[in-house]
Specification:
The complex is a heterotetramer, with 2 copies of chain A (357 residues) and 2 copies of chain B (326 residues). Chain A is α/β, with parallel strands linked by helices. Chain A is built from 13 helices and 8 strands. In chain A, helix 1 (33-58) packs across helix 2 (72-81), helix 1 runs antiparallel to helix 10 (284-295) and helix 5 (136-150) packs parallel to helix 6. Chain B is built from 12 helices and 14 strands. Classes of the chains: A alpha/beta (357), B alpha/beta (326). Chains in contact: A-B, A-C, A-D, B-C, B-D, C-D. At the A-C interface, helix 12 and helix 13 of A face helix 11 of C. Strand 1 (2-12) of chain A pairs antiparallel with strand 1 (2-12) of chain D, so a sheet runs across the interface. The complex binds thiamine diphosphate (2 copies) and magnesium ion (MG) (2 copies). One magnesium ion (MG) binds next to strand 5 of chain A.
């Protein structure tokens, strides 16, 4: 037989789990102290936020909440590489990326607290809100990228899905569109090994998730999703490719969900504690901390200060969240259409009257 | 000004908006060089270029999802579903996103898209090419559902749909795409999206219909007139939000109502109109409401399809029943 | 025999059929080791093995399409949609194939599948987890739509749904999954799929409901009784095909009807019941029909959701309006 | 970077467009005169059927009809490799494959003639009917394959989609399921370069359509779809793999749609006559005929006889089709449910009464 086509999937990693470099050719941003410390701080802040949010849920002051524990390198790597004018189409746990784009912690809490106003957030007005129907956001990103291409704008749309989300047909539709139209899009897969109780291996027969991009003719890359340098470097390559007209990329960031799926889940029902323990040894914060400490760019004192500062900031955000009064009953109606149809106006009036009783 | 068909009126409306609003674009399967399998977009890619009229990969999920992405980022996509039977893979994006985007984000993101759906049976087409599934969308908050039944209304309502800041499902009765011609001034004048159209005044019975059945309904009114029965004919045209007041006003006058639609009987949109009559016009009704509809079966392949569709005879018989009642 | 909750009754029914019919299997997201996010399939994979209780890849199109494939080849799949808001990607296979397979092939291929859908609001869940979208299916020929409202009916109706030779959409009111317990004999006795259930006899007004609202409706009847008003309560339970005769009979007696459902008002399934009353029970009606429903808005996130759902007070007020009328 | 995975797509062809062998290692079936002549005859018969069906439509005696002109090698290659107990999930134009499975030409005509009874055909009772919603049949095949696997049956499900159909999310869902569960399935892509008016290159950025299988972890193969030996050989490999527990395969058969999309289409609106002419030079029948003639396995006389025979058979089938009386009005109701619900029984009675008037 002759060969019609050949492909390979590259893997990118800079920092090993022990915080040592596995390769020396660091990208420029990773040689810059402020940048790297900034990435670390963002990751550490996100972890503090996450821990406090889970606690808040446990005390009944928040609805179901999806933790991002263990995903910090992936999320910060994504968020730090993007520009404000780019469009972000998240799933639901990428708070780290969103904070870098201006979304406030109180807004995240408001959303999980059952209040639509959380989605009218302080991040870029064009960013998508959290997306519950798995992987549908990928097609919105593709549509956004198509708008950018048609309008000749130098902007990129970035979507995130999970390992589970790569099975969802919308993911395929999105990457296939990106390939068909040559769209400025980066489709990131945050492979945290689990989709609620379903392990990665049961989602697909594919060896890597990055190779899903081959079906769409996209560039594909697998990165260590616990190594923020690798994630950021992969994003930089993909964003640059997209911005310069080179089309879309699928990036698989390999990480691990250290928490339950959400606060409504109990992962002990379906997964081995030993596996989780093993995953802790590869988690993203400690490796970057070791590396920074080794370089003398970070110290225990700075760590303590940053922790205190982060906690105070998060506590203030929680206060702000808790202080938001519930929306009035008419809030249900007021954003349904640009102009309230007559029918609905009558229903609105009745709802208000019922409240008055 | 030459008289044009319903489908030509649609083309004319799209051409007008493509010309006057740079954010408008058309996407769908075969809408480009081929001008759509029904030729609704014929010539538009040639005039406005492949960046305004885009062929898509063959996937309805893709068409709907891209449209949501485009609409939320400042474009005004007009998406085409090739046939009514292919809208189902679009529902997730339409219901979960298009219809919800404004409410979800308290108005931060909006979704001004139009989905054009060639609709209904009677053209001897294969399976899945003849569905009347408008009821799918009518229980979904946040959408508008529109269906013209004449060249003039096709032009005015499609313009309005494209300009509307919210998502519109725009059904097109394909059986009457080319049935007759009408003068349709190309003046960019849109029609309102929240009123029913009274096509014929009458005093004995109100006939309510939409889409292709408006033809049979008008013919039935004619036949009834020949027998001395005066039927008022209303084209609902804008199903959602529903202008029930116009219907109630007519029934207030006639006391009788026959609702005609092609979709299956049970839970077709006719049910909503009959239900509102039972709620709001009970004291006006002189006879039970009648529904003349498709059966609760799939529309059969074409050897039998005309036996499935509401006929003039069935409408006339139902109208007479309302007059014999009580 | 210990009393069990509605969701335990569902588990019991599935266990019974898995045990007695080797062609029955369960598939869905997280239905295996995890026993489903609501625990409806808890323990079943452990007992019957991973070849009878299968986790699927995370895709609803996949779940629906595989189920059609399985059902047409001699299996009896029970598919789970994790939440009501995730059924939309399943519609294409359900409407275009499951509902049509028998008719398309003149009975050569059939599609005995069940889709279980945890349904409705009121559990403080995130967006898309609280939808009442049963109206989606009620205009689709070839389907059955069922919704139990008690542990006993959950058991008997689910058994019947699994054994039915045609596709059944089985809605489960998740708000009352664990609301109360009832003795449910594990005797494999199915209930009929084509009758409404009269839960309380009354003579002044008929209250018609289904799913979770049956609770509020019964409470309203209680409240009305305290005021000397005798309300008959009907749990529709089998929405499609609809047993309208039972409803007509009751309204024939009471002359008044209040329909209660959680779905949005316009074109909710309540419309069909009100419409049939307008057609077939006009002369029995002593007062306009009333519908107590969700608003024509999306069910809000949970800070407001209880203001969206029909309340006992709203039902009572509507019933009283029917009594004050004329 | 290190490499996480590598893939290649092989291409299989035996007979060149000129009817000469491009490789010598012919599979056993292709060394057998009867088998090869049988394949040729089936292809030639199908072409006669197709030509007469198009004509029938032009005279108003058939509804819209989808021609299979140019696809004969692909369809016969598929149909001849399958066993009766396997399940076939076709799209809408694979009559050649269906004839080999026992479907009668009159049944194909009945279907396109607007009569459901055509789908209650004489082929295997478990085969699927023609499937209009593009690519949905692939998931039915996957479900069937899952049933076979769960019941431990040595059967394979074979689906066919077009080049356009590979963009449809159902195709991806099907192959991903096949990979995830290791299903006995063969997903054939009949790439005829056009999806109505949309050319292959606009469907996807992928170099080959066979590589779509990489996203699912399936074996992938591209074959010359105008070479019946290659198609059959590829099918044999894939069916054997599936039957022996080796899982699914994606096969892309590269061919060309020599006709309009259907009789409702006019391809001159969107495609170059020159392209079609070029494609005729590679069409499947003539190359096999040359090859057989060269071997002395087929002659002009045999060709003429077979043509006459085929025409007579098709004419008889057309007669039989035209003689089928229309179904009675109650046919609309009688296969809706196993038992007619009361509601529907009343509607049925009314429909019959209306007929009587
Ligand atoms: C369409 C759809 N189906 C099911 C769900 C329920 N659900 C929420 S999260 C989840 C698992 C997602 O897994 P993955 O994509 O790996 O992302 P992760 O949560 O692991 O980050 C499921 C099944 C959903 N939200 N949307
Ligand atoms: C879901 C769906 N969308 C659109 C159509 C209309 N349609 C029928 S055939 C076709 C093109 C199919 O192209 P391809 O898959 O390449 O197969 P081919 O007809 O070329 O064999 C389209 C768009 C359809 N049948 N189903
Ligand atoms: Mg995951
Ligand atoms: Mg093709």
């Amino acid at each position: 037989m002759s060969t019609a086509a050949r492909f390979s999937i590259e893997y990118l990693q800079y920092l090993g789990p022990d915080g040592r470099l596995v390769r020396e050719d660091l990208p420029a941003f990773a040689q810059d102290r402020d940048t790297l410390v900034g990435l670390y701080k963002a990751m550490a802040f996100t972890r503090v936020f996450d821990e406090k949010s889970v606690k808040l849920q446990r005390t009944g002051k928040l609805g179901t909440y999806a933790s991002c524990l263990g995903h910090e390198a992936a999320h910060i790597g994504i968020g730090s590489a993007m520009r404000t004018e780019d469009v972000f189409a998240p799933m639901y746990r990428e708070y780290g990326a969103q904070f870098l784009r201006g979304v406030k912690p109180r807004e995240v809490l408001l959303y999980w607290g059952g209040d639509e106003r959380g989605s009218d957030f302080s991040g870029p007005k064009h960013d998508y809100a959290w997306c519950v129907p798995i992987a549908t956001q990928c097609l919105h990103a593709a549509g956004a990228a198509l708008a950018f291409k048609l309008r000749n704008e130098s902007r990129v749309a970035v979507s995130v899905v999970g390992d589970g989300g790569t099975s969802k047909t919308d993911f395929y539709a999105a990457i296939n569109s990106a390939g068909a139209y040559g769209l400025p899009m980066v489709a990131v897969i945050v492979n945290n090994q689990w989709a609620i109780s379903v392990p990665r291996r049961m989602q697909t027969g594919a060896q890597t998730l990055a190779q899903k991009g081959i079906a769409a003719g996209l560039a594909c890359l697998q990165v260590d999703g616990n190594d923020v340098i690798a994630v950021r470097a992969g994003m930089d390559i993909a964003l640059e490719r997209a911005r310069s007209g080179g089309g879309g990329t699928v990036i698989e960031a390999v990480t691990y969900r250290l928490s339950d799926h959400t606060t409504a889940d109990d992962a002990r029902r379906y997964r081995d504690e030993a596996e989780v323990k093993e995953a802790w040894a590869k988690e993203p914060l400690s490796r970057l901390r070791s590396y920074l400490t080794g370089l003398g760019w970070w110290s225990e004192a700075e760590e303590a200060t940053w922790k205190t500062e982060s906690e105070a900031r998060v506590d203030a955000e929680i206060e702000a969240y808790l202080a938001v009064p519930p929306p009035p009953v008419e809030a249900m109606f007021d954003s349904m259409y640009a102009e309230l149809p007559a029918d609905l106006a009558a229903q609105r009036a009745r709802a208000i009257a019922r409240e008055a009783r | 000004m030459a008289a044009i068909t319903l489908i030509e009126a649609l083309t004319q409306a799209m051409a007008w908006e493509l010309k006057h609003d740079p954010s408008v674009l058309i996407l769908g399967e075969d809408v480009g060089v081929n001008g759509g399998v029904f030729r609704a977009t014929a010539g538009l890619q040639q005039i406005f270029g492949p960046e305004r009229v885009l062929d898509t990969p063959l996937d309805e999920t893709t068409i709907a999802g891209l449209s949501v992405g485009l609409a939320t980022q400042g474009m005004r996509p007009i998406a085409e579903a090739q046939f009514d039977g292919f809208v189902y893979p679009m529902l997730d994006h339409l219901i979960c996103h298009a219809a919800r985007m404004r409410n979800r984000t308290r108005g931060r993101l909006t979704c001004p898209l139009v989905l054009r759906v060639p609709w209904g049976g009677g053209i001897r087409a294969p399976e899945h090419h003849s569905e009347a599934n408008e009821a799918l969308f009518t229980n979904v908050p946040g959408l508008r559902v529109v269906m013209p039944s004449s060249p003039q209304r096709a032009y005015g309502l499609l313009l309005a749909a494209i300009r509307d800041p919210d998502p519109v499902i725009f059904y097109e009765p394909k059986r009457i795409y080319r049935q007759y011609k009408e003068e349709v001034p190309d003046d960019g004048e849109a029609l309102p999206l929240d009123v029913c159209y009274v096509l014929r005044d009458g005093s004995d019975v109100t006939l309510v219909s939409w889409g292709a059945q408006v033809k049979e309904t008008l013919e039935a009114a004619e036949a009834l007139a020949a027998e001395g029965i005066s039927a008022e004919v209303i084209d609902v045209a804008t199903l959602k939000p529903l202008d029930f007041d116009s219907i109630a006003e007519s029934v207030g006058k006639t006391g009788r109502c026959v609702i005609v639609h092609e979709a299956p009987y049970t839970a077709g949109f006719g049910a909503e109109i009959a239900a509102r009559l039972a709620e709001q016009s009970m004291y006006d009704l002189l006879a039970p409401v009648e529904r003349v509809t498709g059966y609760d079966t799939h529309i059969p392949l074409f050897r039998l399809e005309m036996k499935y569709l509401p006929s003039v005879a069935r409408i006339v018989a139902a109208a007479k029943r309302t007059l014999q009642a009580s």
